[in-house]
């Protein structure tokens, strides 16, 4: 830029692009993991018949699925454990790996069931659940890879 007196001012350097901290990426992946587990787990735990009816299962069959309340309890427990890991991150590497596997296996099982004609509920629910689990799995794996340096410190055994 040139001033009225004729001297030129040096161009201002572009501000550096701020990259997201891998620990923040990992934290957001865990928040997503907790959210997805609660989204499915709480309704199955508290109102299983209502949940299954809402996703298109006929009422008579939904009543038979009420015995799957324990599946909701497992998902809620995983969500709570995700919150605990965020609060006390020691061992987070193992948890993130297991959570990634949980979402990957859930997505694969849903797609397999869908293809085999054994899906539960309406097509919209099967498709949405498959996409949500697959997307969450991809996000967790990506966050895990991006945060390798952060997670490396989580697997060191304490001296004892």
* Strand portion: under 5%
State the helicity in percent bands: 55-70%
Poorly predicted sequence stretches spanning 5 or more consecutive residues = none
Q: Tell me the structural class.
A: mainly alpha
Query: Sheet with the most strands?
Result: none
How many separate domains make up the residues? Answer: 1
| Average predicted confidence as pLDDT | 85
How would you sum up this structure in a few lines?
With 160 residues, the protein is mostly helical.
Describe the structure.
The mean pLDDT is 85. The chain starts with 21 loop residues before the first helix and ends in an 8-residue tail after the last helix. 69% of the residues lie in helices and 0% in strands. Helix 1 packs across helix 2, helix 1 runs antiparallel to helix 6 (123-146) and helix 5 runs antiparallel to helix 6. It has one domain. The chain is elongated and about 85 Å long. The chain contains seven helices and no strands. With 160 residues, it is mainly α. It has helices at residues 22-46, 48-54, 59-65, 69-87, 92-115, 123-146, 148-152.
């Amino acid at each position: 830029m040139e001033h009225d007196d004729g001297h030129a001012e040096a161009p201002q350097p572009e501000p550096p692009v701020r990259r997201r901290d891998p620990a923040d990426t990992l934290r957001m992946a865990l928040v997503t993991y907790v959210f997805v587990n609660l989204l499915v787990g709480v309704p199955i735990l508290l109102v299983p018949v209502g949940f299954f009816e809402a996703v298109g299962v006929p009422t008579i069959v939904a009543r038979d699925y009420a015995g799957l309340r324990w599946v909701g309890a497992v998902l809620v427990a995983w969500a709570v454990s995700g919150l605990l890991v965020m609060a006390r991150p020691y061992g987070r590497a193992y948890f993130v790996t297991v959570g990634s596997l949980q979402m990957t296996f859930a997505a694969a099982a849903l797609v397999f069931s869908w293809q085999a004609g054994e899906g539960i509920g309406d097509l919209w629910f099967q498709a949405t659940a498959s996409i949500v689990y697959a997307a969450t799995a991809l996000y967790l794996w990506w966050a895990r890879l991006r945060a390798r340096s952060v997670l490396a410190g989580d697997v060191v055994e304490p001296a004892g």
